[in-house]
Amino acid sequence: MTDPQDDPAVGLRRQLQDLFVSVRRPTYRSLETHAEQEGRALRTSTVSDLLNGPAMPRWDTVETFVRACQRYAKTHQIQLSDKLSDLDWWHAEYWSTENALANRAARREKSTGRAVPSRRRRSAVPAQLPAAAPAFTGRLDQLAELDKLVPGDHPGRPSTVVISAIDGTAGVGNTALAVYWAHKVRDRFPDGQLYINLRGFDPHRPVLEPATAVRGFLDAFEVPAPRIPTDLDAQAALYRSLVADKRMLIVLDNARDSAQVHPLLPGATGCTVVVTSRNRLTSLIAAHGAHPVTVDLLTSHEAQELLARRLGAERVAAEPGAVEEIIARCARLPLALTLVAAHATLRPHAGLRELAGELRDSQSRWQTLTGDDPATDVQAVFSWSYQTLTAPAARLFRLLGLHPGPDIGAPAAASLAAVTPAEVAALLQELTRTNMVLEHAPGRYTLHDLLRAYATQLAGSIDSAEQRHDATARVLDHYLHTAHTGDGLLLAHPTRTRITLPPARAGVTVEEFADHQQALDWFTAEHAVLLAALDHAAATGFDTHACQMNSSIAVFLFRRGHWHDRLATGKTAMAAAVRLADPLVEADTQFGLADAYLRLGEYDEAHDRLSRALQLYAGAGDLAGQAHIQHGFCFLWDMREQPARALDHARQALDLYQAAGHRAGQANILSKLGWQHSRLGDHQQALDYCRQALPLQKELRNHTGEAHAWGNLGYAHHHLGNHTEAISCHQRAAGLFHDLGDRYNEAQNLANLGDAHQGAGDDHSSRGAYLRALTILTDIDSPEADKIRAKLAGSPTT
User: Fold this and answer.
1) Number of independent structural domains in the chain
2) Beta strand 408-409 with 444-446: parallel, antiparallel or unpaired?
3) pLDDT of 23-50, one tens digit each?
4) Is the pLDDT confidence value at 258 over 90?
5) Residue 488 belongs to what domain range?
């Protein structure tokens, strides 16, 4: 026999008895009269059964009794508690009891195997999931992560799951993932599945109100209309009562924000809720322990698999190059790829190469990425998120389409939009929250290629040509002036005079660096961006920016051994310098190009560039410039193993530096004179020159020149048999170059250190130094790595 205390109806009866006591126990006849005044019928026997009988009453009986008590209290000026005077609360309480009784009956039926007679109607079992996407591809990690979040299988796990397209806004397939997974696991939810599109980003219909969503769920349970309260809180309470103690899957698709979702969350942990949104639902994660699941762009392999499933493996395999381009042009965005596949299906005789060409053409790209309704139009889908942005954030998004690099930092974004760093932080936060922009690394923001193209198109149609020109000028100013500042901390190249810049434009944020390392870190982070910015400057008429930026990033590229980048930027800057028709700018650029050719072993080309630069400097009467070129010739002939010719150019450079009063140049060339004397076998003379250079470099605080002087001293000592002194000098030189981030010269001194250790009979230390040098030279793709390999091949292994 069932314990009466286990009967859910007992709790409801106690609540009714509390109300009866609160209105001071009126006679049953009196309540019958007050019910009649409400237009309702209430017999005295019914009141007795309601308060004392074991049966569960009907809702209309409970409602009539409650209304009669409330009218009686009002007539006799009796103050009731907020709860007892709230009919919606009674409504929710009643249906919570009704649902609990139904659940108890179901459990008894399951345990006994026999049907349990009951006048109560069992709740409907909703099955509202839409069809899963055909040819669903990939997402194995996300599917596995979702599998782990089903309550019951993993106690203590949160019951609410947020799928947020963090790495790709509209079109990334978060709805497809949610629905596919829901179908995959629906058997684990025997009490049904609820689904609703909250229309958070629908251009034609308003965002779905929570009250409408709750009412839809109540309809799914086939709750009769008269039993549904009018108040949202009461409706939500009834909804929570209906799903209490059930194992249900609830998919809340396309939510605008957390506020829209809160009323739709059940209170029971047996239910799993999957929420999809283009926005990051931070409040849902904080308040309900929701688990964010990242939905990124497809991998290249997943994208190819998607196309193969749609078009057939043979068709995809027949044109691998076209498939690769289609995937790249679609930015691995699932919506874009499925649209291309649809067009290819409708044109079975057209080659995929033709579709790739249409995507390549900016005029036809968007037509190829369009379906026959807005939900399958990539531009339209992007626009739904764009339209939710505030005006300042929308402007920044458009201007990001003008940015030339693969990603952008906050200071550059502030310059692009001419706002303060504090203002841009708020705008970037809005763009990342809405997944229009991704913060792929701390402080580094990017958007995939299709979003970039969409932003560029918006900028072209909304912002004037002048506004776009000014934004480009500001961001180029940011990179140029910040690079110039950082270049000063890296210290000037031994044979280069730093340029002088005009003031940055209004609205430009120029970054400041505390020290050399901070500057080096900035150059490293911005390396690819700076190369792209220089190319963009030359391509858009900012030739002066291109030439000045080429000069300002030269030291960094030199230090890191990026010779091919140095050559590419030099060629771009050279074309800009010719357009500017400024002899000194061209001379500086020719000299930089010559240096790149020298490092890459293209000596004839380097000689031609140096010769042209020397003519230009001589024509302008620039003594220091001519001295730099003589220094360059010295280096050239040194690399070509002709130290006598190199020494002759070094002497000419010294004379020119002295005539120009260029003390830094004199210090540098003194060290070079010492090196050339060593190369010619006059090591004692080499020591004399290097000892003159060293104090001058220290006085000038030229750490680069000091490092070179120590290295040349070490070389001379080694060949004089002073191995202990040589080891000390090369260690100091390698340490200084390491601190400066000059990898090439660090490697050179490590190689020389290996020679000095070998001369001292320490083969173990020698091999260690050679290996460290080889690692650097291989990493920077220097042709001199082969020399170190040869030394290692001939050295003992222990």
Assistant:
1) 5
2) antiparallel
3) 989 988 888 888 888 777 888 778 888 8
4) no
5) 464-581
Q: Angle CA(183)–CA(189)–CA(191) in degrees, nearest 5?
A: 120
**Element spanning 16, H or E:** helix 8-22
Looking at the structure, tell me whether residues 470 and 455 fall in a common domain.
no
Fill in the amino acid letter for 621.
Answer: G
The neighbouring-strand residues paired with 444 are 409, 441
- Distances in Å between the Cα of 438 and the Cα atoms of 77, 285, 395, 560 are 62, 19, 17, 29
- The pTM score is 0.73
Residue 158, pLDDT score: 45
Residue whose C-alpha is closest to residue 218's, from 126, 344, 319, 144? 126
Beta strands in 278-390 (DSSP E): 291-294
Do the beta carbons of residue 583 and residue 605 sit within 8 Å? no
Please give the C-alpha separations between residue 257 and each of 212, 281, 436, in angstroms, as whole numbers.
Answer: 16, 6, 15
Query: With left for phi above 0 and alpha for psi between -120 and 50, is residue 332 left, alpha or beta?
Result: left
Q: What local confidence, expressed as pLDDT, does residue 692 receive?
A: 94
Lowest mean pLDDT among 528-542, 717-731, 780-794: 780-794
Buried b (16+ CB within 10 A) or exposed e, 169-200: bbbbbbbbbbbbbbbeeeeebebbbbbbbbbb
Q: How confident is the model over 104-159, as pLDDT tens digits?
A: 766 665 566 554 444 444 456 888 888 887 778 888 888 888 888 775 544 444 45
Residue bearing the bigger pLDDT, 494 or 477: 477
Structure tokens at 711: 């290295």
Specify the pLDDT at position 396.
97
Same domain, 457 and 469: no
**CA–CA separation, 169 vs 296, rounded Å?**
9
Angle of helix 663-679 versus helix 623-639 axis, rounded to 10: 20
Tally of CB atoms within 10 A around 324: 14
Considering the domain architecture, whether residues 66 and 169 belong to the same structural domain is answered as: no
| Amino acid found at 163 | I
3-state SS record for 267-281: CCCCCEEEEEECCCC
Give every CB contact of residue 273 below 8 A, 6+ residues apart in sequence: 159, 160, 161, 250, 251, 252, 264, 265, 266
* DSSP single-letter state for residue 2: -
572: in domain: yes
Residue whose structure tokens are 């004379």: 655
Q: Which residue from 721, 714, 698 is spatially nearest to 748, judged by alpha carbons?
A: 714
Q: Which two tokens stand for residue 373?
A: 């309704």
